[in-house]
């Protein structure tokens, strides 16, 4: 699934979250962050806000865009685990974020030993010492 959002002076953050009862694995990958039409020549800092292993909120800047020197940044599918918030920490934008959302359904990969045929249960020959 494709993801896209825009951060502006009036909409400074966007939160991507999934249903807590969903037992699938979700990956959010951020591909591109770019200034769009109407942006001023000012620093626009985009942060990713998430939680660390101690469940504390952390914010990490991922892009610092300026119209005259770096209007676009490729993040090479920077992978995140939802829930995650994108925040315009500085500047007025508009900044467009694009990426993709992958859903991986968990499947029961277990199997029973009874399903193995006699061919699968062949014994391996013993390991012989090397000849000198």
Describe this structure in words.
GO terms for molecular function: chromatin binding; histone binding; RNA binding. One of its GO terms (cellular component) is cytoplasm. Belongs to the nucleoplasmin family. The chain has about 130 residues and is mostly beta strands. The chain has one domain: Sandwich (Jelly Rolls). It contains no helices and eight strands. The strands form two sheets. It has a four-stranded antiparallel beta sheet, with no helix packed on it. A hairpin with a 5-residue loop joins strand 4 and strand 5. The radius of gyration is 24 Å and the shape is elongated. About 15% of the residues are buried.
Topology:
Layout lengths: L1 E6 L5 E4 L8 E11 L8 E8 L5 E9 L6 E9 L3 E7 L4 E10 L28
Antiparallel strand pairs: 1-8, 2-7, 3-6, 3-8, 4-5, 4-7
Subunit structure: Interacts with NPM (via N-terminus). Forms a pentamer with NPM at a ratio 4:1 (NPM3/NPM). Two pentamers form a decamer.
GO molecular function, one term: histone binding
Organism: Rhadina sibilatrix
Task: Write a concise keyword list for the protein shown above.
mainly beta; four-stranded antiparallel beta sheet; 8 strands; 132 residues; elongated; Jelly Rolls; single chain
Number of helices: 0
Helix percent band: under 10%
> Judging by the overall fold, what is the CATH architecture?
Sandwich
Based on CA atoms alone, the radius of gyration comes out at: 24 Å
Please give the domain count: 1
Report on the biggest sheet: 4 strands, antiparallel
Shape: elongated
Note the beta-strand portion.
Answer: over 45%
Task: Tell how many strands the DSSP assignment holds.
Answer: 8
Let me know the CATH homologous superfamily. Nucleoplasmin core domain
Low-confidence stretches: 108-116
Oligomer: single chain
In angstroms, what separates the terminal alpha carbons?
61 Å
Subunit structure: Interacts with NPM (via N-terminus). Forms a pentamer with NPM at a ratio 4:1 (NPM3/NPM). Two pentamers form a decamer.
Biased composition (Acidic residues): 110-122
InterPro entries: Nucleoplasmin, Nucleoplasmin_core_dom, Nucleoplasmin_core_dom_sf
GO molecular function, one term: RNA binding
């Amino acid at each position: 699934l494709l993801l896209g959002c825009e951060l502006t002076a009036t909409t400074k953050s966007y939160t991507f979250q999934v249903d807590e009862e969903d037992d699938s694995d979700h990956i959010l990958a951020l591909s591109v962050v770019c200034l769009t039409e109407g942006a001023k020549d000012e620093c626009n800092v985009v942060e990713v806000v998430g939680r660390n292993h101690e469940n504390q909120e952390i914010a990490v800047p991922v892009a610092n865009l300026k119209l005259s020197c770096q209007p676009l940044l490729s993040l090479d599918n920077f992978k995140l685990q939802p829930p995650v918030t994108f925040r315009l920490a500085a500047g007025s934008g508009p900044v467009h974020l694009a990426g993709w959302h992958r859903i991986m359904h968990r499947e029961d990969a277990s199997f029973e030993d009874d399903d193995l045929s006699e061919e699968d249960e062949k014994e391996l020959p013993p390991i012989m010492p090397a000849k000198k």
